[in-house]
Amino acid sequence: MGCRYIRELSRPYSRKDRDVGPFTNNFRLGQAAGTIVVPLIIPPLEELTREPVTLGDHLRRRRIELELYQKDVAAKLGVTTSTVWNWENTGSVDLRFIPRVINFLGYNPIPQPEDLLKKLAWYKQVNGLSLEQLGTEMGHDPEQLADWLIGRHIPCRRNREEIEVFLMAVDSTY
User: Fold this and answer.
1) Which end of the chain offers a freer environment for a tag, N or C, measured as fewer CB atoms within 10 Å?
2) Is 79 helix (H, G, I), strand (E, B) or coil?
3) What residue spans define the domains of the chain?
4) pLDDT of 145 strictly over 60
5) Using an 8 Å Cβ cutoff, are 25 and 33 in contact?
6) How far is CA 156 from the centre of its chain?
7) Contact present, 163 and 120 (Cβ < 8 Å)
8) Among residues 86, 96, 151, 100, which one has the least CA distance to residue 124?
């Protein structure tokens, strides 16, 4: 025992004797010393600050507002997660899914035009109808509807009146 006591006395001044952290030559500072407090300010998401342009932008904004994941939205709309991702990033939604997306949004972001044939195209789009389905609803040939909608032919007065009557019957905002 006497030998150990002599060894401890002859030991040079070590880190254990000083207030120094291991592996450094720095002195340990108190808890508050050297602490910089930076307030954390998280800016709002860009999706929530800029005005949505495409249907995909509206979909992303609504999903974020509801705090849902893409997989949750996909399950509600009956599509895959990658489909929702594509819609959000490309902005284009398949015609047959537009009614589901509008229903999920709770509003219709597609503005209704003033022109009669553009209103017919708008009706076809927001209801996700094919030309065949629209032709069945209206009682017109799908080829004839296609010619009207792309501007190849202009409907005669009688057909324009039929289109007006059809739109008034199916759309309360006409």
Assistant:
1) N
2) coil
3) 46-105, 116-170
4) yes
5) no
6) 42
7) yes
8) 96
46-101 pLDDT tens trace: 777 778 888 999 999 999 889 999 999 999 999 999 999 999 998 888 889 999 99
Q: Which residue matches tokens 């004839």?
A: 144
- Domain spanning 46-105: which superfamily? lambda repressor-like DNA-binding domains (1.10.260.40)
Residue 107 tokens read as: 């509003």
Phi-psi group of 43: left, alpha or beta (phi > 0 → left; psi -120 to 50 → alpha; rest → beta): beta
CA distance readout (Å), 60 to 7, 79, 86, 93: 72, 15, 11, 12
Q: pTM for this one?
A: 0.66
pLDDT of residue 25: 57
The predicted model gives 136-143 an average pLDDT of 93
Taking only the tens place, the pLDDT of each residue in 23-53 is 555 555 555 556 777 777 877 777 777 788 8
Maximum pairwise Cα distance, the chain: 121
HEC readout, 25-80: CCECCCCCCCCCCCCCCCCCCHHHHCCCCCHHHHHHHHHHHCCCCHHHHHHHHCCC
pLDDT of residue 87: 93
116-170 belongs to CATH 1.10.260: yes
Within this chain, domains 46-105 and 116-170 share the same CATH topology = yes
